[in-house]
Write a structure and sequence with these properties.
The protein has ten helices and three strands; from the N terminus they run H-H-H-H-H-H-H-E-H-H-E-E-H. The protein has a three-stranded antiparallel β-sheet with strand order 1-3-2. Helix content is 71%, strand content 6%. With 282 residues, the protein is mainly alpha-helical. A hairpin with a 2-residue loop joins strand 2 and strand 3. The radius of gyration is 27 Å and the shape is elongated.
C-alpha cells in the first residue's frame, strides 16, 4: 500500500514546487533580457553603420552573438552550480535556448560570410523559442512576442529592405523586451496564493469540509490529528475570513460544534487549487 502524504508534507511539497517555479522563471528572465538587449542594439548599430556607408560585414551581429554566448555560458554555469538540482522545466529551457544560441551564431556566420542580410532569418528563428517558452510557462504576452517576431521576419523578407535592421530592432523591442519586462508586473502563470489557505492545518480543514455538508469539531480533530486548541484557533481564522460557518449548540446536554464551508470559502478553495495547478504544470 502506498504511503500517503500528511497535510504537512503535502504543503511542504507545494512550497518547494512554488519556489522552484519562481527560480526557474527568474533564470529564464535573465536570458530573455540579455539577448533582447544585445540583438536590439545590434540591429540599431547595423542600420547606423549601413546608413553611413560603413561596410562592417555584419560585425555588429557577430559581436552581439559572441557577447551573448559568453555571458549566457558563464551565467548558466554559475546558476547550475548554485542550484545543484535541475527541474524538468530548467532542462527544457536550457536545451531550447542553448539550441537557439548555437543556431543563431551559425546563421550569423553563414549569412554574413555570403554578404546576406541576417535580419529576417534571426527574427524567424527567435520567434520559435520565444513562442515555445511562453506556451510552456503559460505566459501569453511572450507567446504574442513570438508571433510578432514571425510577422516582422516575413516583413523583412519582402519589404523595407533598406530599413531591415531597424525593423529588426523594433521587433525585438516590441515583441521581446516589453513582453519580458512585463513579467514583473503581470500575474504570468504564477497566481498569488491565498495566505489564509496556505497553511497546513487550515488547508486540511478546508479540504475536509469541501467534500461534506457539515462536520463536527471532534471529527475534524480526529482527521487532522491536531490539538484541540490549535484546531480552534485555525477554524476561528477561517471563520473570520468568511470561509467557514461555525454553529454551536448542544446534543444530549453536551456542547456540540459543527463546521461547514461557506460559498465564499468554496470559491476561495477552488481558486487556490487552480493557482497551485499553475505552479505545478509543466
Amino acid at each position: 500500500m502506498e504511503n500517503q502524504l500528511t497535510p504537512a508534507q503535502s504543503l511542504d511539497v507545494i512550497n518547494q514546487m512554488v519556489a522552484q517555479a519562481k527560480r526557474s522563471f527568474q533564470r529564464s528572465n535573465f536570458f530573455f533580457l540579455l539577448w533582447g538587449i544585445l540583438l536590439a542594439l545590434a540591429g540599431i548599430a547595423d542600420h547606423y553603420l549601413r546608413s553611413n556607408g560603413i561596410q562592417t560585414k555584419g560585425a555588429a551581429w557577430g559581436i552581439a552573438g559572441v557577447i551573448g554566448g559568453v555571458v549566457s555560458a558563464v551565467y548558466g554555469y554559475r546558476e547550475g552550480k548554485q542550484r545543484g538540482v535541475s527541474t524538468l522545466m530548467d532542462r527544457v529551457q536550457s536545451v531550447l535556448w542553448g539550441s537557439f544560441v548555437i543556431t543563431l551564431i551559425l546563421i550569423i556566420i553563414g549569412t554574413v560570410s555570403h554578404q546576406m542580410n541576417p535580419n529576417p532569418y534571426i527574427l524567424l528563428l527567435t520567434g520559435l523559442p520565444t513562442f515555445a517558452t511562453g506556451a510552456l510557462i503559460r505566459f501569453r504576452p511572450l507567446m504574442f512576442g513570438g508571433v510578432v517576431f514571425w510577422a516582422f521576419g516575413i516583413l523583412s523578407f519582402f519589404f523595407l529592405h533598406e530599413y531591415s535592421s531597424l525593423v529588426f530592432a523594433a521587433a525585438i523591442i516590441f515583441g521581446y523586451l516589453i513582453q519580458v519586462s512585463s513579467f514583473g508586473v503581470t500575474k504570468m502563470a504564477f497566481e498569488p496564493l491565498d495566505p489564509v489557505l496556505h497553511n497546513q492545518l487550515r488547508l486540511a480543514v478546508m479540504s475536509l469540509l469541501v467534500s461534506v455538508e457539515h462536520a463536527e469539531f471532534t471529527w475534524l480533530l480526529e482527521q487532522t490529528g491536531a490539538t484541540r486548541g490549535n484546531l480552534s484557533v485555525q477554524i476561528s481564522k477561517l471563520k473570520e475570513a468568511g470561509y467557514v460557518l461555525v454553529k454551536k449548540g448542544f446534543r444530549d446536554n453536551y456542547p456540540l460544534t459543527t463546521c461547514s464551508i461557506s460559498p465564499k470559502g468554496a470559491t476561495a478553495f477552488g481558486t487556490y487549487v487552480e493557482s497551485i495547478k499553475g505552479y505545478l504544470a509543466p
